[in-house]
Amino acid sequence: MTKPRTEPACPICGAPRSPRFRPFCSARCADADLQRWLSDAYVIPVAEDEEQAAANEADDLAGQSERGRL
Ligand SMILES: [Zn+2]
Known about the structure:
The chain has one helix at residues 27-69. 61% of the residues lie in helices and 0% in strands. The model has no long low-confidence stretch (mean pLDDT 78). The radius of gyration is 25 Å and the shape is rod-shaped. By secondary structure, the chain is mainly alpha-helical. The longest helix has 43 residues, at 27-69. Zinc ion binds at residues 10, 12-13, 15, 24-26, 29. Residues 10, 12-13, 15, 24-26, 29 line the site of zinc ion.
C-alpha cells in the first residue's frame, strides 16, 4: 500500500486541493481567491483615481475662475 504524499491544502478553506483546481480544492475556492486578489488590487488604484479626479476638478474650477476674471 502506498501512502499518499502530504498534499498542500487549499489556501482558502484548508481542504485537500484538487488537481483540476489547484492550488485550490474547487472552483469556488479558486474564485474566492481571485475575488480577494482583485479587490485587493483594485482598492488602491480606485482611491488614487478619486484623488486625481478631485485634483482635476479643482484645476478646472481654478481655470474657470481665472477665465472669468479675464
Ligand atoms: Zn477550498
